[in-house]
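From the shared-data thread, chain only:
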Amino acid sequence: MSQLEINEVFNASRVLKDVARHTSLIPSSKINPDVDVWLKAENLQLTGSFKLRGAYYKISQLTDEEKKRGVIACSAGNHAQGVALGATRNGIKSLICLPAGAPISKVEATKNYGAEVCLVPGVYDDAYAKALELRDKHGYTFVHPFDDPKVIAGQGTIGLEILEDMPDVEAVVVPIGGGGLIAGIAFTLKTLRPHIKIYGVQSVGAPSMVQSLIEHKRQHLNQVGTIADGICVKEPGETTFDICSKYVDEVVTVTDDEIAAAILALIENHKLVAEGAGAVAVAAVMFNKIPVKGKKTVCVVSGGNIDVSTLNRVITRGLVKSGRNHTFIIDLPDKPGQLSGVLGVVAEAGGNVISVNHERINTSSEITGCTIRMELETRDHEHINEIKNKLQEAGFRVVNN
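Structure, as tokens:
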């Protein structure tokens, strides 16, 4: 804790003034009608993520000898791009260790910013171990993605921008992986405005900070898995855990389906593309995971570097979660006119048919029956229930919920 001072955050702000964008606060009345929501659009930052701030500031503060040796980092993708850009702009060699499963778009972007890439089997923690091995072998200067006071100070400049743009902010919701982003924002805001509530959000599949705060000591998870690859971290940092323990009011989790719904909402309502990690704060507010009803609340959309193929799958999941897409399974007598009757009910109820699959051989139906699997575009969950009720009133047997 003693390693981080508020003056460091202000110094980082001066260094980053001509490097990082002062990203906008965007009002969002549709995320949750009971909350005064604003989006801190760090997905529109250079490199597509907030990570540029901490990485660049850390590199800018290296000694000439450290710069001469070059830098090494490990990352799920976004920190990699920040380090690559920061090193290239300062004329420094950079080597980045990435998990082998990192999205191709992030790997290629890292190379395009001028870094050499080393792909490591496993997740972030495996890449971290490899980076330390190479650091010790070749003498590189290691740029930690989150557990470093100067990196944390760089991320804290987001807090300064929020206060500058919205002095009366009441709550700030922040994604958590290793904890560097929330540590910087929480330290900055609580130091300058102690009354502001700070909420952290993790994925259900990678709740390392949640578990650590419950146990009052850092916990190492044996296994993690989530569509939010940017926050898929097995263990929080030592410094970040200490700061979160003191300054963060609560940390909650969201599911992958909730994250997908949040990504979809950002695309539809604001034409903003967020990656999984970037959308978790929005998901927490959308699904009422935190007590911010009636409060002026900023959700940090931390990044937008999502692979296109992943985005396609996420949109599909988001449509289902938000009730915009539903598959009905209906048992019918196998005789003429039955399918026509089903489609007539659906049309009258305002459903739009995407696909229909007719199955005669199905052990769950009568010998003389058949099963219809029908995918529909719907308005919301209420509309789904309306269609289901109308089908049942018409005498059709809907066998799924």
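Residues 74 and 97 are 5 Å apart (CA to CA).
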